[in-house]
Amino acid sequence: MTDHPKYLVTGGAGFIGSHLVDALLARGGPVVVLDDLSTGRVQNLAGARERGNLQFVHGSVLDEPLVDKLVGECDRVVHLAAAVGVKLIVEQPLRSFTVNTKGTETVIEAAYRHGRHVTLASTSEIYGKNSSGPLTEMSDRVLGSPSVPRWSYSTAKAVDEILAELYRREYGLRATVVRFFNTVGPR
Predict the structure, then answer these.
(1) SS3 call for 152
(2) Is 7 labeled as catalytic in the residue annotation?
(3) What is the pTM of this model?
């Protein structure tokens, strides 16, 4: 690995991803973005494209051969790709659940095969209705009925975290999970 590792950022054309891509490029390293543009926008990468050292791949984290190829070509993986947004989760709950679980499994498996560190984006939604005050990593999940789409999103993201932890524990995968709460800003 060089002084400037090559990053794969799944979901890199999204709100958080595009800002991360800008920051990684500012550090001097090359970045590969994999995004299906279901919620991300190419326009979010306009500044990054001007900077150079960016490769954009229009594709899905469900495409196992593509994910494997890209992970193998990069030094580190930041997995942000997910079905997000209340409207999408409510209108397409099965697709959302599949993308959020199978997509993450595909990325984690490729990271394991290639010996890459993976940073996985999760969400405060995994805590559900827990209102016990300040939450810690070990705080309980308090969920409603499985028939409510919101809880399928929460559960999918918890499954993602569980996959990362089990791959770490059983296979030595180097993984970091980041739980986002409220994110706001430009784009």
Answers:
(1) helix
(2) no
(3) 0.93
